[in-house]
Amino acid sequence: MASQSIRVSSLEELDQDRWDAYVLASPLSSIYHLSAWRRVLETSLGHPTYYLYAEQGGELVGILPLVHLRSLLFGSRLISLPGFTYAGVCAHDPNVQAALIREGIEIARSSGASHLELRQSQGYPWALAVKQHRLSMFLELPDSGEKLWQRFSAKLRNQIRKAERQDLLVCQGREDELDSFYQVFSRNMRDLGTPVQGKEFFRATLAAFPHQARIWTVYHDSEPIASGLVLGFKDTLEIPWASSWRKYNSLCANMLLYWKILSFACDAGYRLFDFGRCAPGSGTYRFKEQWGAKPHPLYWYYWLREGESLPAFHPENPKYRLAIKVWKRMPLALSRLIGPLLARDMP
Asked: Which domains does the chain possess?
């Protein structure tokens, strides 16, 4: 096979089953490589996509999903994939990886993008610029919630027990929990100074993943005060979106939320829990670390158009300090109205 030519093509409707079969079989893939995300990103956010796959000798040997973000505020960039921690090139053979990257660069050049960004979960010897400014946090799970409980520190168990004494209600669902999830999530992200996607993005995610996506919510006196949307893929359960209402921090609702989800993950047969990405040494890092999660490096690779520098789109960048400060003070209803218009173009 090594002597056979590699052909890179764009995904069409009839190829989706082959694409997803490759994703499910590859140990390098993530849930964000599945073709269903293409519909979510195109229909709910309106972004053009380029889903590239490589064939060699008639066999599908690699994939690369790409999204083109274009806006006056944030510029033009080609990313795999915006808003998510992982995606990027999924291929074993270095020659296949190179062929997919070359095609991605050609699309970036022809579309006027300032750069191509590949969000990889492991490092490769590619001749591209790379940033390692974020980590993923993974927790290895035992086969029961009871065994996991025994691994927790006394301090962590006491925080969970405190929440259990507060007469809080924990519910699990899908579309029936979406309003509660968005109420908590959009409020907390406003408080952090970050615009968020509209509710329709999360509705589309639930619709696209009927068996993988669920929402957990903690209620106090019928008021949602903590919630998270989880995604299951292979042996891993991930929580890419979660928030709690700071007003009720003393009730430890967030601790109860995570404990219920982790216990479910163990009993459901998942072997890893992905807490999502964070900055090393941050408060979010310490929160995830207390559960026993271990850091895993992330590698974000870049092709840069001549004259361009590595992007620095993150809350720690001083150029966004004023915008974040203003957003934190914005009325909640207004942030929910205009936030999705901004968030749809944010990487």
From this structure: 6-132+299-311 (3.40.630.30), 136-295 (3.40.630.30)
